[in-house]
Amino acid sequence: MAAPSADPQIVDEIRRLALAADDIVVTRTAADDLLARRLTVDDICAAIVDWIDAGERVKPTKLHSFPGLQGEPAYEMKPRIDGVVFYLKVALIKLYQPGEYLLLISAHPDH
Question: Is residue 92, in this structure, part of any structural domain at all?
Fold first, then answer.
């Protein structure tokens, strides 16, 4: 049996926010991940959009250790970027409210 994927409406919202690089906030950890691989937020956003457009699974999970957001929903994807499979974790913050954004929590090679 296939593992569950996120609600299609949520997946659409992740894609919508990924298309607007101005609506992305990157954690310190994710910023370090990007610098280590010489990737940009635009690279990650493109990978997210491509992953979703290909109909790949967006796995729902919960945040466990992010300050102030413990227990909130997050979403995992594993797109290939420059031939490397990456583990991405994002969360939708203030969805449908002024100031909404996509929080990029993790963006590192999948080990």
Answer: yes
pLDDT of residue 22: 79
Residue 69 is assigned to a structural domain of this protein: yes
- What pTM was estimated for this model as a whole? 0.92
Position 50 in a domain: yes
**H/E run at residue 44:** helix 41-53
**Region 26-52 average pLDDT:** 95
Q: Name beta bridge partners: 92.
A: 102
List Cβ neighbours of 84 (8 Å cut-off, separation of 6 or more): 37, 109
Q: Which of 53, 61, 62, 70 is nearest to 11 (CA)?
A: 53
Report yes or no on 2 lying in a domain: no
